[in-house]
Amino acid sequence: MSKDLDIANPARTQAIMNAYGLRVKKSLGQNFLTDQNVLHNIVATADIGQNDNVIEIGPGIGALTEYLARAGHHVLAFEIDDRLLPILEETLFDYDNIDIINQDILKVDLPEMIATHLEPDRPLKLVANLPYYITTPILMNVLAGSVKFENIVVMMQKEVADRLAAEPGTKAYGALTIAVQYRMAAELAMIVPRTVFVPAPNVDSAIVKLTALPPRTHVPFDEAAFFKVVKAGFAHRRKNLWNNLQSLFGKLPETKTAIQAALDQAEIDPKIRAERLTVDEFITLTDALHASELL
Ligand code: SAM
């Protein structure tokens, strides 16, 4: 099999898949990128330099991994599908700065993996062509987790990308928006047509860049509690905040009194829906629920 060509090339991708008899698993969101311009764009958007450690989710047959390894210092990639490991072994044979871990990204202990595989004190970036069936849980885990990325550049379905920079009060605004905007500034880098993937997905895609914001001045008493309140606030989108908080804390009379006291303290109308609350209001609410001893 010719190695003169980048992996991200329709002919080489097909040749690799044929050589290994690989049939893609739709259930794992396997849509391989075959366009070098898109890959250049991803690496440029993430501003990957020789000093950078890069985490990749879902290397597939290595198209993006190869570009990241050329531009960065070290790549740590997580791939769930063990059929791809021998393929990656061959396609990425020439690179000695890549570690592939055969694990589910939703189950992996990221801080532990980073401590084991990456040199400390280097800028850390996350770059991925995400498996679309789990875009939201991956982003929620990454954003609510303790690992801090300088930037995150990810390809996702356009419809989810629209949620990241949404304004309060709009349909697209939700728990994911708040998790992103709590720490990062979101910008749409590029719309990507379905034709550049093999096989083509049945939705349009977008590359989004999330850049770390300077540390917040207004922070909740506990970040895990903040994310719990945000998730609960949006658990049932049609319910108002009062009802969603009752689902979280329970309906005992003393609990109701404590929720009411917290909402009063935070100066938030119980009948409002979570989609009207800004990040700062969710932080104020979290602290008020803490003051009422519910958290
Ligand atoms: N990076 C490759 C590319 O751009 O051509 C492949 C991207 S493909 C959209 C998504 C990849 O994520 C697939 O290789 C799939 O097997 C992998 N994947 C799916 N679920 C995963 C999970 N839970 N943990 C890690 N990898 C996963």
Oligomer: single chain
The termini sit apart by 59 Å
Structural class of the secondary elements? alpha/beta
The CATH H-level homologous superfamily of the largest domain: Vaccinia Virus protein VP39
Overall form: elongated
- Give unreliable regions as ranges: none
CATH topology of the largest domain: Rossmann fold
Q: Which molecules are bound in this entry?
A: S-adenosylmethionine
Question: Please, could you describe this protein's structure?
Answer:
This is Ribosomal RNA small subunit methyltransferase A. It is found in: Cytoplasm. S-adenosyl-L-methionine binds at residues 31, 33, 58, 79, 104, 129. InterPro entries: KsgA/Erm, rRNA_Ade_diMease-like_C, rRNA_Ade_Mease_Trfase_CS, rRNA_Ade_methylase_Trfase_N, rRNA_adenine_dimethylase, SAM-dependent_MTases_sf. The radius of gyration is 21 Å and the shape is elongated. It is α/β, with parallel strands linked by helices. It starts with 9 loop residues before the first helix and ends with a helix. The chain has helices spanning 10-19, 36-46, 63-71, 85-91, 110-117, 135-144, 158-164, 175-183, 223-233, 241-249, 253-266, 279-291, and strands at residues 32-33, 53-57, 74-78, 98-101, 124-129, 151-157, 184-192, 197-198, 205-212. The strands form 2 sheets. It has a 7-stranded mixed sheet. The protein has a two-stranded antiparallel sheet with strand order 1-8. It has 2 domains: 3-212, Vaccinia Virus protein VP39 (Rossmann fold); 223-291, rRNA adenine dimethylase, C-terminal domain (Helicase, Ruva Protein, domain 3). The chain is built from 12 helices and 9 strands. Helix 4 links the parallel strand 3 (74-78) and strand 4 (98-101). Helix 10 (241-249) crosses helix 11 (253-266). S-adenosylmethionine binds next to strand 1 and helix 3.
